[in-house]
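Here we describe the complex-level prediction in full. Unlike the single-chain runs in Section 2.1, the two entities below were treated as one system.
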Amino acid sequence: MADHRAPVDGARVLDDLNTLRSIGAYKGGVHKPTFSDAHIRSLHWLATKLPEAGLAADIDGIGNVLGTSTKSGPKLLAGSHLESQNFAGWLDGPLGVVYALEAARVINPDADIKGAVEVASWCDEEGHFGSFLGSRSYVGAVTDEDIDAARDRSSGRTLREALREAGLAGRARVTAERGRHIGYLEAHIEQGQTLESGGLAIGIVTSIVGIWQYRISFVGEQNHAGTTRMDLRKDAGLALARFCVAIDDRFPGYSGPRTVWTTGRITLDPGAPSIIPGRAEMLFQIRDAEPAVIERLEDLLRSMAKDVTAQGGCAVEIERLRTGAPALMDSRFQQTIEDASGRFAGGRSVRMPSGAGHDAQVLATIMPAGMLFVPSIGGISHHWTENTDDADIVTGAQVFVETCRLLLAE
Amino acid sequence: MADHRAPVDGARVLDDLNTLRSIGAYKGGVHKPTFSDAHIRSLHWLATKLPEAGLAADIDGIGNVLGTSTKSGPKLLAGSHLESQNFAGWLDGPLGVVYALEAARVINPDADIKGAVEVASWCDEEGHFGSFLGSRSYVGAVTDEDIDAARDRSSGRTLREALREAGLAGRARVTAERGRHIGYLEAHIEQGQTLESGGLAIGIVTSIVGIWQYRISFVGEQNHAGTTRMDLRKDAGLALARFCVAIDDRFPGYSGPRTVWTTGRITLDPGAPSIIPGRAEMLFQIRDAEPAVIERLEDLLRSMAKDVTAQGGCAVEIERLRTGAPALMDSRFQQTIEDASGRFAGGRSVRMPSGAGHDAQVLATIMPAGMLFVPSIGGISHHWTENTDDADIVTGAQVFVETCRLLLAE
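The structure predicted for the assembly as a whole is:
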């Protein structure tokens, strides 16, 4: 086979990314929650770009943008997402969508390459309304009842309202046509410091860790903050604080080398300065690639809760909200990314698990899937200062497009 | 002087309190935030009742309801407030207003008693928009600029909007006519267990403790909860939890016997389950009757914050939002409440400080002031289960009216 050395247009990739950054711009990043005006405009922007790559564009009834090809031969699905966390970075999501678009622009018109790259922007990967709603809808794991029940976690707006306001009410949801694709490829910023600190250009994802999420609730006694003596209090907020500290003190003795755990939200009820909180709640997350580690930590968590409750102050309850089995990336995809990195990134690649969840883990349930990472400056993510060097973005695009070409050629 | 033994109508007092309870009812209590519909209806209810006591009713430009008398002789001001904390109890506020109304109904028409009781319902004692806005307006401590700036802490609605919606925009605010009143008397539920556990009927308030309030802010590094290794994190939420626990461990070594401290609200920023909080904030309150104790505790707090910041993880800042000098209740008022308790409560009274703030502390800045407490069942307050025995409510009313009579007669 001839060496095509896919002619990636680095300036075009950076232009597209900066265009998406300008829609819903916030400081150096973006504020583009799911079905915000900025998000909807970004979906339409993508739909107008897809024909440049020989793709027919469709925005479906859950907000997925899908670009499909009539070219003969094998088809590779590629993409990521366009919405952002609140006040977050410009690359988390758009990078993978623009790489997919670029791959389609380079490969699809080329008669010497058999097959085509099809492009997807999955809606709500960031979980404003749910958990991987768009990609899960595509693989057939979202029911109409799930959609009826979903609400924006911040504003409370229902998903049905949001879809109506976005002009998507009543549209069909597109689901995967089994056997259509040889697999799914996604690129993303690393959101960590492994690549940067190792002087590397490409992370080859081996697996996506599972996320286990819990609601931990504390029940004490709501009372007046001025008239209730310290020794008579059952302060649910203080019990929560002690529990957070206890987790941080005890988890390291039971966790694996890459386990992470986070308390992302705390709510005291009623939350007034002159009232002792009678109830308190925390959202708590554990991630690891090893279910056995999680099991050990969940056991510890539950026994800690039992101990606190037994002491008779505040009662602690633990509810598991999300159970995340780790997803393995296809070994052939891993090898192909490594080969492409050898040609376009001087072999500066490393195999590594992903600590973050991605749509690839959902697509992996119905087809072979692969992921590659590009470096994040300072490892910063989910914050508007998130960034990647332009040169690294272009190198990543070259490796991505080459990986697509090699996968289609196999 | 003849022994009048003020003919209090206990059933009427309970009826009035239950009528106010039915306006904005929530379970056994009420949800009546400042300038909610239920609150406004309660103000109008009072305004229609005041003429029964020979008082001219006015609702002024800050939502204070004032009943004024043209009867000759000394005048005693009495009252409390009608709004509630969110989803809170039925007596916190209304008890003192209805007692004042009852005193006015008993005393004002009685030609044998010189002088009159004037009734006040102070707006926003519960601090939805500010801090003692109504009584502070009455003593001249609130400027128009303060009103321009005030907003509902929960909904964000401005005070100007709320006043407009309540039909009070453009009305003058009534301020105290110096020398008009011999003093101010207020009754309230205890909101603690001192009276109940001692089998007592009346608490004679000696002083109202000062409230010092702080915003304690933690700055770490916002980052991705899946991709940021535990040893690289600067988790502002965890730093806050550790600070709460450290306060609770260290304060007892520096506090007085009646000092209380409370973390009533915690906010993690951005508050999403998959993001390590980059910022966190807590509202923290200390109360004591001794400014020297508070000073010691504030020094400790600041040195703890300095230590945490010096450790290089998260930076901690402490901002004092509220400085509350304790207010002394008038000794003649205290003695008169004790005398009245001797006659109507079998002497089952005790002198005690108030751990809660009350409008009496504001009125005390311009006239002699006194306060009496009735028992709270289980000491519960700022919760819809707050309650007081009907018999204790009636006894309290008798002592209150007798105290008014005695003060006017002196």
